[in-house]
Design a protein that fits this description.
Layout: H1 2-12, E1 19-21, E2 24-26, E3 33-39, E4 48-50, E5 56-63, E6 69-76, E7 83-89, E8 94-100
Parallel strand pairs: 2-8
Antiparallel strand pairs: 1-3, 3-6, 4-7, 5-6, 7-8
């Protein structure tokens, strides 16, 4: 029973791991620089180092007003290959970061464009931009003129 209680207490402890966003990145991107957002208790107090990795450099650490967030600027050069980056803090905290290979012809993909947008699809009757189209001759129920009061039984 004691072992069970100890295990339960250990599970209840908050996780001290570092959350990183984005979760991974790709080699060979047009812009070689990426910023990683770190989230963990007191992570702004930490000084990070990148273990040597060919073609990748930790260029800057940005400390924010919150002690729980920090940005790391990373330069991923053209000679970098897919693999795992290892970041280590001065207090021994560490995390791995995945660099992935880009899919073939992924550079030709079109991003967000005007073709992806539907703008002002609602009919103008909701804003009543034209009071002359409020009623239809074949409908029994007619709309009230603008400013008319609702009947008390409704």
């Amino acid at each position: 029973m004691r072992v069970f209680m100890v295990l339960l207490a250990l599970l209840a402890l908050p996780c001290q791991g570092v959350e990183v966003a984005p979760k991974h990145w790709w080699v060979g991107m047009q812009n070689p620089d990426v910023q990683l957002l770190l989230h963990a208790p007191n992570t702004a107090q930490r000084q990070w180092q990148l273990r040597p990795y060919d073609g990748v450099k930790l260029t800057r650490q940005h400390h924010l007003d919150s002690d729980n967030y920090q940005f790391l600027s990373v330069h991923i050069g053209a000679q970098a290959r897919p693999g795992t980056l290892q970041f280590v803090a001065d207090d021994g905290t560490q995390f791995d970061y995945q660099l992935k290979a880009r899919a073939h012809d992924s550079k030709q993909r079109q991003g967000f464009s005007s073709d992806d947008v539907i703008y002002l699809i609602n009919p103008d009757r909701f804003a009543n931009g034209n009071v002359h189209n409020d009623n239809h001759p074949q409908h029994d129920r007619k709309s009230r003129p603008s400013g008319a009061r609702r009947p008390p039984w409704r």
